[in-house]
Automatic annotation (TrEMBL):
Stated name of the protein: 4Fe-4S dicluster domain-containing protein
Lineage of source species: Bacteria, Bacillati, Bacillota, Clostridia, Lachnospirales
Gene3D superfamilies given in the database record: 3.30.70.20
UniProt xrefs under SUPFAM superfamilies: 4Fe-4S ferredoxins
Keywords carried by this UniProt record: 4Fe-4S, Iron, Iron-sulfur, Metal-binding
Residue span, 4Fe-4S ferredoxin-type domain: 4-34, 52-83, 85-114
Organism: Laedolimicola intestinihominis
Record InterPro entries: 4Fe4S_Fe-S-bd (IPR017896), ET_IronSulfur_Cluster-Binding (IPR050954)
Pfam families: Fer4_11
Keyword set includes 4Fe-4S: yes
């Protein structure tokens, strides 16, 4: 089973945050306990020739072809899944050292309230049963979509 990765079309994003909310709900993220949302939505403001502009972004793990986070993980809990192609993790194996956090160029990895790794897994469990990732499912504009 080759999972599809979540892609982003910036021209369609309105920064509604539906994707981030769906992700937090799907992954039971507890922001009140200090957990960080696995999908971040932010606005970039600019001004050119007197015209103010806004660009919206929706970011999470890019599931790199050669993941620096997995190479940095001394506990071996992060790995590139050969079947799906996604960068996955085994929370039970995580020792909370934080080396992966420093290695990720996207800042897409954080520790949960138990001091264990948390990151986007492409909703692999949903994809394995033929469902669409939660963030893609709720995106009202199609800014998030599945691609190869």
């Amino acid at each position: 089973m080759s999972a599809k990765t979540i892609r982003f079309d910036q021209s369609k994003c309105t920064a509604c945050c539906a994707c981030a909310m769906a992700c937090m709900d799907e992954k039971d993220t507890d922001v009140e306990q200090g957990e960080r949302a696995l999908r971040q939505v932010y606005t970039e403001e600019g001004c050119r020739d007197g015209q103010v502009s806004f660009r919206f972004h929706s970011d999470s793990c890019l599931h790199c072809r050669v993941p620096a986070c997995a190479a940095a993980c001394t506990a071996g809990c992060l790995y590139k899944d050969a079947e799906s192609g996604l960068v996955l993790y085994d929370t039970a194996a995580c020792d909370g050292c934080g080396q992966c956090l420093n290695a990720c160029r996207m800042g897409a990895i954080s520790l949960n309230r138990h001091g264990k790794i948390q990151k986007c897994d492409g909703c692999i469990e949903r994809q394995r049963v033929g469902k669409i990732p939660a963030c893609v499912l709720v995106c009202p504009t199609g800014a998030l979509y599945l691609g190869e």
